[in-house]
Amino acid sequence: MTEMTLGAALNSGLRRALADDDKVVLLGEDIGKLGGVFRVTDKLQEEFGPRRVIDTPLAEAGIIGTAVGLAYRGYRPVCEIQFDGFIYPGFDQIVAQVAKLHYRTRGAVKMPITIRVPFGGGIGAVEHHSESPEAYFAHTAGLRVISCSNPQDAHSMIREAIACDDPVLFFEPKRRYWLKGEVSDDADGLPMGNARVLTEGSDVTLVAYGPLVPTALDAAAAAAEDGTSIEVIDLRSLSPIDFAPIEASVRKTGRLVITHEAAQSGGIGAELAAAITERCFFWLEAAPARVTGFDTPYPPAALEDAFLPDLDRLLDAVDRVMGRRNSLTGWKASA
Amino acid sequence: MTEMTLGAALNSGLRRALADDDKVVLLGEDIGKLGGVFRVTDKLQEEFGPRRVIDTPLAEAGIIGTAVGLAYRGYRPVCEIQFDGFIYPGFDQIVAQVAKLHYRTRGAVKMPITIRVPFGGGIGAVEHHSESPEAYFAHTAGLRVISCSNPQDAHSMIREAIACDDPVLFFEPKRRYWLKGEVSDDADGLPMGNARVLTEGSDVTLVAYGPLVPTALDAAAAAAEDGTSIEVIDLRSLSPIDFAPIEASVRKTGRLVITHEAAQSGGIGAELAAAITERCFFWLEAAPARVTGFDTPYPPAALEDAFLPDLDRLLDAVDRVMGRRNSLTGWKASA
Amino acid sequence: MSDVSTTHEHTRTSSPAGGSPEDLHPGQLEDIVQLICPDGARTASPGFDPWVADVTDEDLLGLYEDMIVVRRIDTEATALQRQGELALWAPLLGQEAAQIGSGRALRSDDFVFSSYREHGVAYTRGARFGDLLSFWRGTTASGWDPYSIGMATPAVIIGAQTLHATGYALGCKHDGVDSVAVAYFGDGATSQGDVNEAMVFAASFQAPVIFFCQNNQWAISEPVGLQAQRHISDRAPGFGIPSMRVDGNDVLAVLAATRIALDRARRGGGPTFIEAVTYRMGPHTTSDDPKRYRPTGELDEWAAKDPITRLGRLLEGRGVLTEDVATRVQQKADAVAYEMRAACVALERHPDPLTVFDQVYSGPHSGLERQKSQYAAYLASLDGAQS
Amino acid sequence: MSDVSTTHEHTRTSSPAGGSPEDLHPGQLEDIVQLICPDGARTASPGFDPWVADVTDEDLLGLYEDMIVVRRIDTEATALQRQGELALWAPLLGQEAAQIGSGRALRSDDFVFSSYREHGVAYTRGARFGDLLSFWRGTTASGWDPYSIGMATPAVIIGAQTLHATGYALGCKHDGVDSVAVAYFGDGATSQGDVNEAMVFAASFQAPVIFFCQNNQWAISEPVGLQAQRHISDRAPGFGIPSMRVDGNDVLAVLAATRIALDRARRGGGPTFIEAVTYRMGPHTTSDDPKRYRPTGELDEWAAKDPITRLGRLLEGRGVLTEDVATRVQQKADAVAYEMRAACVALERHPDPLTVFDQVYSGPHSGLERQKSQYAAYLASLDGAQS
Ligand SMILES: Cc1ncc(C[n+]2csc(CCOP(=O)(O)OP(=O)(O)O)c2C)c(N)n1
Ligand SMILES: Cc1ncc(C[n+]2csc(CCOP(=O)(O)OP(=O)(O)O)c2C)c(N)n1
Ligand SMILES: [Mg+2]
Ligand SMILES: [Mg+2]
User: Fold this and answer.
1) Is the same domain home to A130 and A262?
2) Any idea where the Transketolase-like pyrimidine-binding domain is (chains A, B) (predicted)?
């Protein structure tokens, strides 16, 4: 067990993956000498050489398309997309090629490609540097989509993603790169496809992933002080969603709050709300509530606090599903 | 009033738009002499010349990006994407530029771009020719997303889309291009942003759009014979969704079925189910049901009947929300 | 003062480095490599001849047979489409020499990344007929197992495969083998970002990849002049990739050019771009109607440059292609067509609906498993209701 | 036999069509246009000189002042970032000549589509200081109203703006005006599909657009050699676009080249590509640490070619840049910096949260209106709870 930041845990996970399997190669912009703009690949090129850690020309379709060819050849490419908002030039290669080649070839060709995407806001960045594009990929058949929220998961899940024979979109909560935690080489063994119950609770089920997991835990702590018991679930896998623990939780609590930074319409929260309503209709005491980014582009930094879900908005939603107050209809808290 | 096919109605709508405003230009692959692979732009180049109806080089990012520049210059470009599955190379330009430029420039620059996308399956086509990518765009702030289901709407809505100062993704139900109907120049005046109640009913609200609207009407007719009264709503606008008539309907029926060809996870149905549950929780008698394509790539033609929602699957869902039978849990109809 | 003199026009048709064009390509028209003229005459080319010096008359006859066969395959597939046995077909008519000449130059450990029209290439790789047609029949999303014949599943998204070829080639290089990746694509494809990015990446990595562009003059209804203002082969050098422009209706010239490019790639010389100038004599696909856009006379003009006729003339002139041999070749082609038809109609038209869920992922997937079991239950309930 | 002789290498450094390079560009090094040497000497160039024959010493002093001012703007902005007044800044240090020389060549009805580093160009277009900084302060998603200064909102997505410039230019052409669109982008950007597609479209439409590439040798940590195996200016001719390679640290050469390209575009001659060879003397942005990747000595090497120093030397030699004048110029620069700092700190740091919903659409949007009113109610309820 070592204490390290989430970013360092990714670095050490990548290092392990490179050491364990010489078919693993890293591709991306500025991942070599610079070690990536977030230093997640720091020193890996020095250690494994420029054939394993490859600085590519500046073109995302090129990176992903080259990775497809490498995968055809038996490699396990790990592509870094420098920031969330730069994934779109590679969208066609991801959606039409990476996602579909296994199906297209009826299993003959595997696409064990991992696409690492530092995502989300809260770092005061300029446009295109704070987006949450995960729903596009969760709606795309053939991909697996996961997100980590702590150093241990970062380390274990990146290794698992690379070892997975299916393509994996790996969303890294960039504002949590500096979050510290204990990391051991043998994780608790929870597969990357599984959600994790972080705190048990009886009143409300609160589902989060990536950067908002710490926020959700804060909300649970704050609510506990007010006597509300919240079960926080870290989704971890956004596609497929591991519904079993969420169903079990909602059958217990009767109330669901979901949070993400991405726009509300058509986000992961929509799928969760719809699917949990299908599965737990008769257990629900209130409609699932979504606390999300708005249906706007990610705003300039001066407005990001207004845009991002935070502790207060989560507690407001908890109050709402508890029937306590309803900011939506103007019924104010009596406090 | 003239009877024409949906494809011809689009053609006549485009002709009117070209005639009414000389800032309207059409851009696309093979839209000139060939008139488009579906002949939707038939004879328009002949009539308006190659500066108004522009055959472009074969590159979707190029088409959209060029349209952005034309819009900057005051034009109203109408881009044709030849088939749904070819929109992805243009995804970055749509999502990062077209959708965001108005916000980015705080309203100084308008993006009155219409992107026409023949979409959906059922025509026995090869890969990439039968997709339903609408949810990607409905999740993207800054775009308006609409779909027509009959010749009159095709004609009116394409004109309205072109006249709209915001970018519009216009999804054309390709397998209904040959559907005939009366078209008049003055439509009934229902704005493109509004949903339309097609049949009134009291038992179940059935929401469809684009190619599945005729299927939904068939289902309503079949259900009526069995004594079930279905209110069919043509969504028309997928972003924003016109919730008022759906809310009103669900408050009456207590039951909602939603159908689309796109994959279920994160599709329009997820948003509809989640939002209607939020708005009508206490009116719902059953969880909203979704009848959609599966979470697989669009399959080869031999399997498309298995993939596509059809009359029987709609009726099954109606039975389910009516509590009559439940194929999902194996409870068979007694008949 | 004219600005033309002050800027680097670079835009004239370039000639090879060193020597006059005549020295190198005596048989060429407009700076194009040609070894067999349309009238069947064999023209000398000091630069290219050595690369086909080992090609015997017997070999030429083999290429001839290949071309006859793939044209027969093409005709038969078009017929099958007309008869409703195929949903669609993209004819290669006219492009036989470009595909056979290049395809036959490859080794089995080379790897092809093609577009949808390379049936001739697939034939040279040994694709089975059922696998050639199942995609077009709508039975499966694609045909052959790529690893069994060294040819990827054709790409329908224009240009996407050029990047795959580049990545594969990079893998070959890193593996230390001298296999080569070959990307096939059309003239229209050169406008796509992907194809240009592939050139950037290939040049940057010095990847052993051949960019083989069949310039068949059309991208559906759009003439090549809409996509490119210069010869397509003029594009690659600016990326640092040497290029050749060959008569794509001349199977020998195509063979020679491909061998040159393969040799360079195998020896660590990196990528090469080949523009094979040819013509799509048929429609874009069986759904297309070229009458709407093809200028009158153009087809005739190109028919006079037919790739098969010219090799036939050469071989007749040499007494290799006798009437007997011609009959044997035709019989072989007919036999192939017969076999292909049989393979076609044998393809399953109504696969089990539940197979729609197969092979989306390589491992278990909770979401799909649920959808599959629910769909199975639904299908079973229908049976129940109908019984 | 070497394959080199059999393929069209096209890859040598091209010389201008007609005439020997020496005739045309006496002052050039390595086929690069240069009118002012690093030591301040004015070299003759028969091809380019006529294009700047009207440039007086007064004009040159104006360009000098511009460069001093934008360098001062850059230094001040970097300081503002270090002091926490800006969230980020992308320094233009070293690229003053490339930006001023090209920017000052434009007419007000031309239209610029830039990347994020073109503060110097924005200055020539008349951008207000607050508008220059509000993006970098995080106050707004962008700065100026594009129509007020004839310059689009900078594009952060690498290369995207080149297509916008092409479309805008097509619009100018169809409008029958002789305005020109100018796309600015970096060396790294040339690898993006969009930039190559822009060249295809521009060539195909003969659009009046200038592709102005500032090759500053680096794309963050990646040297230009990773993106391009030939001079970047060698790429365009293959697309049918004439190109020029100029010393980007020579403001006069840049001015001349831009005027040539503008003139061609205005007269219906279509697109031109200009590679301005320069150097990014600072970090990529204030978040970057070039020590991790910049070879030692490189910065010094380029410092010796500084764009401002050399024009200063020329003007000193001519007696135009006296000590008095230099002081006046420096005062102007300081005044600008002062004004900019004031404009910066005056920018709103805490806009009304509800403005997050503004200007997403140009018309009403039911979905957003609901979110906005709910958010307003929520904010009000917080007030309520806190009161
Ligand atoms: C990304 C994309 N856009 C559009 C299409 C539709 N399309 C199919 S073939 C074709 C023309 C291709 O022309 P070319 O590259 O010259 O190849 P050819 O058909 O002549 O062999 C087009 C536009 C496509 N398949 N993919
Ligand atoms: C599509 C996209 N990918 C990646 C980035 C991240 N990024 C920002 S600047 C930059 C380097 C650009 O280099 P160059 O084009 O040479 O311009 P310069 O910064 O040198 O002016 C990169 C990779 C981006 N902004 N957009
Ligand atoms: Mg073609
Ligand atoms: Mg640069």
Assistant:
1) no
2) 4-179
